[in-house]
Design goal:
Layout (H helix, E strand, L loop, with lengths): L1 H42 L6 H14 L18 H4 L1 H23 L3 H22 L2
Helix pairs in contact: 1-2, 1-5, 2-4, 4-5
């Protein structure tokens, strides 16, 4: 029975990896849309809706590192294998992004457009840092 279950796991592991790749790509698309929406609101001097945007971004960044199991770097992915070797750094960048989103959310709750802009820039900096290190 154990051999059979091991065989099934081995057989279906590429499907699980593919699913997690699709999930992280979906999260990144959502993240990009949210960042564009936040940028547009900031550009227009509006804070309405930013609390919700930054809550979603914070959730994505907290969840995102879990979507990179070691067996998910083959196939249709742009993620670098460097994530495996530098997982602590990868997780820290995601954590930093989550914290910037949390700070931007607080600034939005206080209608502090200047603080929102600064935290948005820091959040964007985390994105650039991660992509430059961990995206093929």
């Amino acid at each position: 029975m154990i051999k059979f279950l091991s065989f099934l796991l081995l057989l279906f592991s590429p499907l699980f990896a593919s699913d997690v790749i699709n999930q992280r790509q979906d999260y990144m698309q959502d993240f990009s849309k949210l960042m564009r929406a936040a940028n547009q609101s900031i550009k227009n001097g509006e804070t309405d809706g930013l609390v919700e945007i930054y809550e979603e971004i914070e959730f994505i960044m907290k969840t995102y590192p879990t979507l990179f199991p070691d067996d998910s770097f083959d196939g249709k992915t742009k993620a670098s294998n460097d994530i495996i070797e530098n997982r602590e750094t990868f997780n820290q960048i995601a954590n930093d992004a989550s914290q910037w989103a949390a700070l931007a959310k607080i600034a939005a709750e206080n209608n502090d457009l200047e603080a929102i802009q600064q935290n948005q820039q820091n959040l964007y900096g985390s994105c650039k840092s991660c992509h430059s290190r961990f995206k093929n």
